[in-house]
Amino acid sequence: MKTVFHAAGSRGHADHGWLDSHHTFSFAGYYDPERMHFGVLRVLNDDVVAPGMGFGRHPHDNMEIISLPLEGDLEHKDSMGNQAVIREGDIQVMSAGTGIQHSEYNANVDRPVKFLQIWLFPRQRNVKPRYDQLSIKDIAQPEAFYQILSPEPSDQGVWIHQDAWFHLGRFERPAGLTHTLQREGNGLYVFVIEGEATAAGHRLSRRDGLGIEDTLTVDFSIGAHSTLLLMEVPMR
Q1: What is the DSSP letter of 233?
Q2: Contact 10, 204 (CB under 8 A)
Q3: Structural domains in the chain?
Q4: Is 9 helix (H, G, I), strand (E, B) or coil?
Q5: From residue 201, how far is each of 34, 35, 219 by CA, in Å?
Q6: How does strand 73-78 pair with strand 145-150?
Q7: Diameter of the chain by CA atoms?
Q8: pLDDT (tens digit, 9 = 90+) per residue, 68-109?
Q9: CA 90 → CA 21, 22, 43, distances in Å?
């Protein structure tokens, strides 16, 4: 088993006034040659957008982009004609493929919106762009990791053009459990949204990240009032 630990305080940080963003991997003005990606996981940004502010219309291509709101409401518009608001308890996915333009704004003028922005390299380039969103409250399982993303359109959660699986777990009580990866050769990136946990011998606190590879199972000891995001991704 191989691991790489990214403490919350070691992340890149950019405060633009309207946007306060922490970058687990190199992004924009933050560059660290040792932190370019974990397998096909290219971007993990922890964003806070001020009331009424946001990202103006901008382009993407050949990237699988996932947004996970943690607090507040995020308004999305894109060049395919989609217009939607995603909230805590939702997940949004956008396959940029051959090219797409979109904007993201805080839908509220009285409170910030907080969300995770995640980018994965796709397994196939130049696919037809697509957009989807889902309320994961409908599939949530208490005190367990439950799947919110996969490569299969017919599977639970949203789907993307990559052999990746995401699981979310919200734990009100302490828990000990083992997570089994879906595919040999994949790695698991653990991100502690809230609370604390121990995984693969590492003690993790709020917003810490841990990459784990060369194993099919990972044992967890999870503290009370904790929320964890597990991102299983191909390493090559």
Answers
A1: E
A2: no
A3: 12-132 (2.60.120.10), 138-234 (2.60.120.10)
A4: helix
A5: 22, 21, 9
A6: unpaired
A7: 47
A8: 999 999 999 999 999 999 999 999 999 999 999 999 999 999
A9: 20, 21, 19
